[in-house]
Amino acid sequence: MTSPHGEGTAHPHGAPSEGAERPASPHGKQFVKFSFFRVRDEFRAAPEADRVAAGKALVDLIERSSDRMLTRTYTTVGTRGDTDFMVWQVADDLHEIMDWTSAFLGSSLAPLIERPHSYLSMTMRSLYENPMHEGAANRERMRTEDSGAEYLFVYPMVKTRAWYELQREQRQEIMNEHIGIGHAYHNIKINTTYSYGLDDQEFVVAFEGDSPGEFLALVRDLRESVSSSYTERDTPMFTCRRMAPAELAAYCGLVPAER
Prior knowledge:
The chain is of the alpha+beta class. The protein is built from 6 helices and 9 strands, in the order E-H-E-E-H-E-E-H-H-E-E-H-E-E-H. Helix 1 runs antiparallel to helix 2 (94-105) and helix 1 packs antiparallel against helix 6 (245-251).
């Protein structure tokens, strides 16, 4: 998708003069959904046959998503106490995401699996130039190629109002520093999506990589950047491990693991 975390939509030279026409922001292109799920504890005590049936129903539902949308699945077991797995979906039509969620709500899984976190966003061309990667700022759609990364680090983000009061040139300069820090971590790939008016957060940021330690170092370095002082909120943060649907069901305690 587009640039490092955080974008603004203010006029590039502050407030427009009276009668001046404000240029339109880039339009969103693809819909992106990050859905986090948790198997209810009481269901873990259910008979094995019931858990196996639920596991198969989950795999079938995820395969249905994969037939209609770009879909990737991750486990959060062992990284957070409030979620077990995450389904990452990208669609050209919001109806696809809504229809799939409706199918989940109408399935036998709905009473068994909670949804503690859910984030909706869209891909959009960045408002900022990326001097490190020519053309990256103009990317409007999700990369279709699979990075093969083992982990996905996800968090919603909101910028302060003071960020949007800065002139465009000031924000670009701050983002240049931010981009430069990220450029030092070549093994981490960023996906920035936008939620203005669609959900409570302004952005959802998802980093792909193979090393949680390397991502920790990146975020640590970003904390000292000027852009960090304009971040109002960037939690909760999720560390997600890539896992195929069938393996995911077993890992979450539905289908019994092989003995």
